[in-house]
Amino acid sequence: xxxLFREELGAQLIQARSDLATAREAGDDDGVQAYRGRIxxxxxxxxxxxxxxxxxxxxxxxxxx
Length: 65
Hints:
The chain is mostly helical. Helix 1 (2-26) packs antiparallel against helix 2. Helix content is 69%, strand content 0%.
């Protein structure tokens, strides 16, 4: 179960990063904010369940934190 959970969180994190990059390229500030929040939320969920996902320190916080 844990491996499947880790894989799903990892896949969602990859997608959120891709969506963030797309929003940045499009100049979509609302999208950038939303995807930064999504990434931070996924990392918090992972940490809460003891799942380690590779990330940078700036991904741990969205701009509203």
